[in-house]
Amino acid sequence: MQIFIFLTCAGVGALSGIVYDVLYIARCAVCGVNKQAYTAKDRVFIIACDILYFAVLSAAFIFVSVMFDFYELRFLMLAGCVLGAFLYLKSFHVIVAFSVKKVYNKITLKKRS
């Protein structure tokens, strides 16, 4: 049962990466990819995106805990969520971030021409 709980929580963490990528794309569309040029309004938007991400991750974690009757909070549940999100960010997110930067650079290059 412990392995099932760990793998389920790792899946929740990996699925939260999809939410992170959606918010990452929104952040790049609104604020741009140049972090040095961020204004105070951009930083507020980024903080709002981070809060929304953690709210969605928390809601998904609680939903899965209730659905599968994981009544007590265990370290392995948190470790599974963190590991799943970490693996997602180190794998698929790299491809998404690269693609977003390429598209953003092409769009800004066309605007300059």
Question: What can you tell me about this protein's structure?
Answer:
The chain has 113 residues and is mostly helical. Helices cover 84% and strands 0% of the residues. It is built from 4 helices and no strands. It has helices at residues 2-31, 40-67, 75-90, 92-112. The protein is elongated. The N and C termini lie far apart (60 Å). The mean pLDDT is 89.
Describe the structure in brief.
This protein is an all-alpha fold and 113 residues long. It contains four helices and no strands.
Topology:
Elements: H1 2-31, H2 40-67, H3 75-90, H4 92-112
Helix pairs in contact: 1-2, 1-3, 1-4
Secondary-structure element string: HHHH
Largest sheet: none
Q: Tell how many strands the DSSP assignment holds.
A: 0
Number of helices: 4
User: Any low-confidence stretches, pLDDT <50, length ≥5?
Assistant: none
Average per-residue pLDDT, rounded, comes to 89
Q: Gap between N and C termini, in Å?
A: 60 Å
- Structural class of the secondary structure composition? mainly alpha
Helix content: over 70%
From the alpha carbons, calculate the radius of gyration and give it in angstroms: 17 Å
